[in-house]
Amino acid sequence: DAGVIQSPRHEVTEMGQEVTLRCKPISGHNSLFWYRQTMMRGLELLIYFNNNVPIDDSGMPEDRFSAKMPNASFSTLKIQPSEPRDSAVYFCASSLAGGNTGELFFGEGSRLTVL
Amino acid sequence: GESVGLHLPTLSVQEGDNSIINCAYSNSASDYFIWYKQESGKGPQFIIDIRSNMDKRQGQRVTVLLNKTVKHLSLQIAATQPGDSAVYFCAETYGGSQGNLIFGKGTKLSVKP
User: Fold this and answer.
1) Which residue in the set B3, B46, B105 is minimally distant from A102, CB to CB?
2) Which of A74, A81, A61 is nearest to A32 (CA)?
3) CA neighbor of B90 nearest in space, from B44, B42, B39, B59
4) What is the pLDDT of residues B72-100, one digit of tens each?
5) B23: closest CA among B72, B63, B64, B70?
6) What are phi and psi of B101, to 5 degrees?
C-alpha cells in the first residue's frame, strides 16, 4: 500500500504568497483529515471530510485557509495570503469510517516555512 | 505526559527496560482512547486503543491502562528497543467520532543503547 501521499514535503515561501498543500488518501478510505502540528499547540484538527463533503471546518484558523476535496482521491489545503505564524507541519490523514475509530493513517506531512 | 509551551516531557530509558508513558485526558465524556507514535520526520502512527468499558488492553509489547476515576491513561512498553524512540501521543474522543479526536501534546521517549 502506498499510504497517504502528501506534497510538497517541504515548502519555504515569503509572507503574502499563496501556498497549496496536496493530499492523496489511501484508496478506499472515505474520511480525510487535515491537521496542523506546532510545538506550541501540538496536533490540531483543521478540517475533515466524509465522502468528499466537509463536515467540520471549525478548526480552520481564519478565512485565509481553505480546503477542498474535489474527488475521493485528492484534497488540497490552501493558505492565501500566507503569514509567518502559519509555519508548521501540515498532516493529511485518511480513514475508513466505520472501521477502527481511532486508526487514522497519516501522511508524512508538509513542512511549511513562511518567511 | 502533557507538555507546557515548547518543551515536551522526555522519558529516557535504557534498552531492554520497560517504559511507562502517562497521559491525563481532559473530557470526562470521552469513551475511546488511542495511543499514537510519531518518529522524527514522519506522521503519527496508530499503536493501540482502548474503550472506556475496559481498564486494560494488551498488544504486542504494549499495554494500555485506563483509569477513568482520575482521567488517566498510560502506555507501557515492554523491553524497550532503540526503534521505540519517538514522541508518543494519547488521543481521546467520544461518541465514536473521528472528527472529535483530540491529541495530547506528547511525550518524547529516548532509548539509550
Assistant:
1) B46
2) A74
3) B44
4) 999 999 999 999 999 999 999 887 777 77
5) B72
6) -65, 120
